Prior knowledge:
alpha+beta; 3-stranded antiparallel beta sheet
Amino acid sequence: MLAVKVLLEKHKRDSAFVSSFKNVVIYLKRLLNNELSIINDSNCIEVVSSSNQEIQDGIKVELLFKKTIYINKHNFEENLKKEIESFNKKID
Length: 92
C-alpha cells in the first residue's frame, strides 16, 4: 500500500498542477500495478493504493510509513515521481 497526500488548497491548483498530478497518478498505477482511490477536497488530494489479495487463514495488516517532503510547484511531477520511486525502493 502506498498513499500520497498533496496538501495544496483547491484554489491554488492551476491547470499545470492538475496536468502534472494526473501524470503522477498514471505513473503510480503503472508502478504499483493496483487500482487507486483518489480523495479530493478543498485542502488536499490523496491517492491510495492497496492490494486486494484474499487471505483465507490470516489477518491482513497494512503498515504505513510517513515521510513529509516539500516540492517546488513548478517541478512537482518530476520531483514527486523521484521521491515515490526512492520511497518505494526503501520499503520493498
